[in-house]
Design brief:
By secondary structure, this protein is an all-beta fold. It is 0% helix and 48% strand. The strands form two sheets. Strands 2, 4, 5, 6, 9, 10 and 11 form a seven-stranded mixed sheet that branches. Strands 1-3-8-7 form a four-stranded antiparallel sheet, with no helix packed on it. A hairpin with a 6-residue loop joins strand 4 and strand 5. The N and C termini lie far apart (40 Å).
Length: 123
């Protein structure tokens, strides 16, 4: 059974940085694109960034664009999301999700979801 497990969330101060981790099932990165989504309180879920099986990166149009960086380590089956210069509207539950081969903007295209990790940005 394919699994995604996120970690790295927490309570952060504005201006800080954070790296979220998504550990995937073994060899999943060979055939699945991995995206990070987030859902802020009382808002719709939105895609943040995605890395395809070929390593192509897509950063979606969110308030975090320009402050995020997605990366992966295939040896450890891990995808990372670096968030810099954190702002209060980065407060959300962050999910990683997997879809076959290429990235998609729509959440319904993703087959596997992690349980989420809470990021709270507050002074």
């Amino acid at each position: 059974q394919l699994q995604l497990v996120e970690s790295g969330g927490g309570l952060m101060e504005p201006g800080g940085s954070l790296r979220l981790t998504c550990v995937t099932s073994a060899n999943m990165l060979d055939s699945y694109a991995i995206a990070w989504f987030r859902r802020a309180p009382e808002k719709e879920r939105e895609p943040v960034s995605c890395i395809s099986t070929s390593g192509r990166i897509t950063n979606y149009e969110t308030s975090a664009r320009g402050r995020v960086a997605i990366s992966r380590d295939k040896d450890s089956n891990t995808v990372f999301l670096q968030l810099n210069n954190l702002q209060s509207d980065d407060t959300a539950v962050y999910y990683c999700a997997a879809t076959k081969w290429q990235c998609h903007m729509a959440g319904y295209e993703y087959d596997v979801w992690g349980q989420g990790t809470q990021v709270t940005v507050s002074a």
